[in-house]
Amino acid sequence: MNSLMLKLSYRKLMRNKIFSVANILGLTVGFASFILIALFIQYELNWDKSNDNYKQIYRLQRYVTNALYATAGNNISPHTRAITAQLIEGKYPEFEKLTVIFEHNSGYLGTDYEHLVNEVGGIAADTCYFDVFSYHFTEGDKTTALNQPYSIALSETLAKKLFNRTDVLNETVMLEKKVPLKVTGVYKDLPFNISLRPPYILSFSTLKPLYNIERSSLWAGNCMTFAKLKPESDAKVAENKIKNLFAGYDDIKHIEMQLCPLSKVYLNFNDRNDYLIVLRLFGLIGVFILVMSGFNYINLSLAQASMRGKEVALKKVIGSRKNTLVAQFLSETLSISVISLLLALTLAYLFLPVFNRIVDKQLTFNLLNNWKFALLLISVAVLTGVLSGIYPAVFMASNKISTLFKENFLGKERHSFSLKKALITFQFAISLFLIVLTVAFSMQIKYISNKDIGFEKQGLFYSRINISDNNVSFDQLRDRLLKHPDVFDVSLSENFPFVRQGGGTTNWEGGNQDEKITCRFNHISYNYLSMLGTHLVAGRNFNSTFKGDVGKNCIINETAAKCFGWDNPIGKRVKDNRLTIVGVVKDFVYKDMHNPVEPGVYILAPDMVSGDWIFSFRINEKNEAAVKAMLSNELKTTFPNDPFEITDFSFAFTGENAYRIYQSLNNSLLFFTLLNVLLAIVGVFGLVAFTVARRTKEIGIRKINGSSAVSIFTLLNREYHFLIIFSAVIAFPAAWLAYMAIPSANKYPVQPWIFMLSIFTLLVIVLASTSFLTIKAATRNPVEALRYE
Questions:
Q1: C-alpha of 522 from chain center
Q2: For residue 410, what pLDDT is reported?
Q3: What are the angstrom distances between the C-alpha of 420 and each of 239, 296, 417, 719?
Q4: Under the phi-then-psi rule, with left for phi > 0, alpha for psi from -120 to 50, and beta for the rest, what region is 783?
Q5: In sequence order, which residues have a C-beta less than 8 Å from that of residue 508 and are 6 or more positions away?
Q6: For a Cys staple, 69 with which of 167, 563, 615, 648, CB 3.0–4.6 Å?
Q7: Share of residues in the chain with pLDDT > 90 (%)
């Protein structure tokens, strides 16, 4: 592209300002949307890659081979026995390092007994942890930071929260107001897209005095084991060697070990591909918007080219060659494409904070550190410019001079389904596709938000307390709390819906002794189910007067009864015949709104409790602040040494991961659908501009012969109304298939009115956006039309 062509391109842009602005606007929006979506997908596909040994790290996970009726992949668990690493170390040469961690989850940390910080996601790790995962210490030595009991390493952010500084080596931090810990290291904050992002790390040896858990414990099954394989090792060979690691232990002989590469830990550790489908949908939307902006570009280029027939004919007369003419057209389209890319980069950078809030991520935009992405964008811009300009360039340069002077080449496509119409049809199809998906997902969010989950959400609060005093009676505490008129009920449970689920396996009476079903176990107070507002479908509930229920009887849910194959479960036994079923509760959701309800087994908890429990409260929301203050004071009196927070259940429900993904996807669809509609308006503008330019003299002759402005307006609009109908034939099946491909146990069925609404919406948008040009053409003086050029 020489300087003369650049000058000619610049003059052409300035001479046709409306077309130039429309072209640049359409491509800028398309490129910016593509950039944002590509950044999001790249971010999600690059989880954990900040670890230096990313390709060598694997998580050991257990696969229960004798688990029947596996639900939502729950026969695969990321948790392993604490002893797993010791059973492998030194025996299999493929394994270079193994580390064991314990998910401490939420922990209250403070520099004194009053000012506490509740940090979620903390872990305890052994001394090999930093040999496997990459951390950068700013204080202390990571090779010795976890050697001694009562040691803790802090992230820089947490160190600032606790001490307002990061040089806190050898300072003391109180855990749960009772355990003093020595700060042995401070590490830089980890990237947001990393699976293990603990704000603090306890030394694993600290678990011995706290929970009686050691690295050699066989019974501790809630640990996680990560392995760093040697570079030359074959992961499949290593997995086959450790598959039957626990074959010699009767209780867990049916567990097979798997190696899950770090690249799959976040995306699909159990090979369900649910989130990968969501990412593919995002990618499809990005490609659609980019294609749509390219189609707009082609249409507008054709519309502009149609008015340049005499210009091209004159250039041919004075000796311009076909290649020169093609190069001139391509230089113009490439110039617009490059300008649009530069504007799109600026627009994407400005909109990135908004987009981060929409997708709930921490995306960054730095092309200098992401050269592959920069190269992709340049390639896309050049390819878009070439593909958008090649057809009109070749089309114009190939026509005969006489044809160009007469402009008969315009009439050849009048009654055919031309390229322009095909492109507009696909644009409409993409618009309808996104409108249908957006409305469908909006209804899905509303559906799962309002769906009956089997218990009452309103007025429900909970608090997790790690009880250190073993002389606390739940019944006595409940009686005191119920004296307040705005406290309707109080219950106790080991786990709680959408907060913590628990897990385990069980056999059942009448089944094969070696076959088990993965269940959600929960120790509960006698009033737990009634407090939630669930309903029994058979048998009885627990009762405070039946002391014999403790440790002997249980209640199961409907799903468990179906899995066990029982029509009348009352009196049947589970768990090696140790538990007798006294009731069946109607299924209620307790894990998430994405997966189906799993089998549940509920066991009566003792009255005297200690350890980690969840208290739940049904209160009068009208006096929420006063009631929470009263509950807080009462709990402080009862558990003076145990920190806690009282949380509204609605935060747990809406903060659940699957719900957040649905919400994020819905917001993203709405955002990009609006951009897509903008592109559709630009595209229709190009079609109408082309149509008006092509049929200017025809319109003048029709008006002279008596046609009214209304009939002319209808004539001009009818063309793309038919195109919308054609596009619906393409878009509706595609949108339905895309929506149905998103997996969910609670899917809102697509309603016919959604499709009708999408067509009506697009018709209104198209009519509103093109009325100016069509009305202007319909009301134009026919003399001016006949004098056109």
A1: 29
A2: 47
A3: 56, 9, 8, 12
A4: alpha
A5: 517, 564, 572, 573, 574
A6: 563
A7: 44
Please tell me the distance from the alpha carbon of residue 466 to that of residue 485, in angstroms, as a whole number: 27
Backbone angles phi, psi at 53, to 5 degrees: -100, 30
Beta bridge partners of 516: 67
Of the listed ranges 26-35, 391-400, 631-640, 641-650, the least confidently predicted one is 391-400
Write the CA distances from 491 to 461, 527, 647, integer angstroms: 11, 6, 15
- List the beta strands (DSSP E) in 641-712: 647-648
Torsion-angle region of 413 (φ positive above 0: left; ψ -120 to 50: alpha; else: beta): alpha
Mapping DSSP onto H, E and C, the string for 590-631 reads CCCCCCCCCCEEEEECCCEEEEEEEEEEEECHHHHHHHHHHH
Residues in Cβ contact with 609 at an 8 Å cutoff, skipping those fewer than 6 apart? 467, 472, 474, 492
The span from the CA of 756 to the CA of 752, in Å, is 7
C-alpha 254: how far from chain center: 34
Report yes or no: 583 and 600 within 8 Å, Cβ to Cβ.
no
- The CA distance from 772 to 47, in Å, is 49
- pLDDT at 307 (0 to 100): 60
The closest of 121, 158, 108 to 138, measured between CA atoms, is: 158
Residues with Cβ < 8 Å from 602, sequence gap 6 or more?
A: 521, 522, 523, 524, 528, 529, 554, 555, 556, 557, 585
Q: Give the model confidence (pLDDT) of 283-335 as tens digits.
A: 988 888 888 888 877 777 666 665 666 666 666 666 566 677 677 777 777 88
CB 492 within 8 A of CB 474: yes
Q: Determine the 3-state secondary structure of 103 from DSSP.
A: strand
Delimit the domains of the chain by residue range. 1-47+288-413, 54-266, 414-451+651-789, 460-619
Structure tokens at 329: 């057209």
- The string of pLDDT tens digits covering residues 653-683 is 888 888 888 888 888 888 888 888 777 777 7
**DSSP string spanning 20-49?**
HHHHHHHHHHHHHHHHHHHHHHHHHHTTTT
CA 734 to centroid of chain Cα atoms: 21
Distance CA 743, CA 272 (A): 10
The answer to whether 340 and 28 are in contact (CB under 8 A) is: yes
Q: What pLDDT sits at residue 243?
A: 94
- Beta-carbon contacts of residue 424 (< 8 Å; ≥ 6 apart): 295, 299, 683, 684, 687, 720, 723
Please enumerate in sequence order all residues whose Cβ is within 8 A of that of 477, keeping only pairs 6 or more positions apart, or say none: 490, 634, 638
CA distance 538 to 788: 85
The tokens describing 717, both together, are 């609009």
Q: Using one digit for the tens of pLDDT, what is the confidence trace for 496-524?
A: 999 988 888 898 998 887 788 888 999 99
What span, in angstroms and rounded, lies between the C-alpha atoms of 33 and 35? 5
Sign of CA dihedral 652, 653, 654, 657: positive
User: Other C-beta atoms within 10 Å of 650: how many?
Assistant: 13
CB 609 within 8 A of CB 472: yes
Query: Is the CB of residue 738 less than 8 Å from the CB of residue 437?
Result: yes
Q: Which two tokens stand for residue 513?
A: 């002794």
Q: Which residues pair with 505 in a beta bridge?
A: 518
Residue 71 has what DSSP assignment? -
How buried is 267 (Cβ within 10 angstroms: 0-12 exposed, 13-18 middle, 19+ buried)?
Answer: middle
CA–CA distance, 37 with 368 (Å, rounded to integer):
19
Q: What is the pTM of this model?
A: 0.85
**AA identity, residue 341:** L
Q: What angle do CA 460, 463, 469 make, to 5 degrees?
A: 140
Query: Does residue 508 sit in helix, strand or coil?
Result: strand
Q: Is 706 left (phi over 0), alpha (psi -120 to 50) or beta?
A: left
